[in-house]
């Protein structure tokens, strides 16, 4: 299923949340390389701390750096800082995007908060923040974006999922016993179901709703501390390409999928390109140890 390389999103406006670094930056760069005007957003314009277990951890990456990367590759980017935990910032974000860029065609709900802890010892605040980031925020941003997309006659919503949201491998691995990812994984499972349900609601409006998660894991600044030593990770380009594929077809053709970044390109013969769109990357087969509950063409 080789696709045209350049300009597949020309004339489209995309909002990518949590795009100051990591997965969000990769997705923003890939969409911009295909001609989209990309609005990038994060808590602040400068590098901002991630709060884990009540402590601030300053991570590398800023919106200015993302905008610079996109512009240096010939793309168009607009930075709109917004704290998605702040109701005022959150409620006004989509309208600010529409005003600054002339509308919104694509929404990528990528921003997240991961603070792993066993259920027995997890604080209620951590529980609430996790649910808010992975279910409430995508719900609210989608709700505000839908009227703009309906007016345009088409739209694409992509939620960033996770293989942790699938049933764990049995017999249980040591990771499942000790990682403390239960609440994170439960909200990702809920996000998958939200994706499929919203896809059904919006099918007749030609608004596609899909989810894309890493087949294994991506070593981002935020995720590095959560990954066990020696864990094999994957490049962000494969996930960014899979997100792009979910933003290009009519809803009747491709909606309601829970797809994974190595599995989907491998089984569909999708060409994966660098984030700037200039070079083709090698085919990359999903590892044999990835979650067997992943369906290669999407759930």
UniProtKB/TrEMBL annotation:
Q: Which InterPro entries match?
A: NAD(P)-bd_dom_sf, SDR, SDR_fam
Molecular functions (GO terms): 3-oxoacyl-[acyl-carrier-protein] reductase (NADPH) activity
SUPFAM superfamilies, alphabetically? Answer: NAD(P)-binding Rossmann-fold domains
Q: Which residues form the signal peptide?
A: none
- Give the domain of life: Bacteria
Polar residues bias locations: 288-299
Catalyzed reactions: a (3R)-hydroxyacyl-[ACP] + NADP(+) = a 3-oxoacyl-[ACP] + NADPH + H(+)
Q: Where in the cell is it found?
A: Secreted, Cell wall
Q: Which Gene3D superfamilies match?
A: NAD(P)-binding Rossmann-like Domain (3.40.50.720)
Q: Which UniProt keywords apply?
A: Cell wall, Secreted
PANTHER family associated with the record: 3-OXOACYL-(ACYL-CARRIER-PROTEIN) REDUCTASE, 3-OXOACYL-[ACYL-CARRIER-PROTEIN] REDUCTASE FABG
Could you say which protein family the record assigns here?
Belongs to the short-chain dehydrogenases/reductases (SDR) family.
| Name of the molecule in the record | 3-oxoacyl-[acyl-carrier-protein] reductase MabA
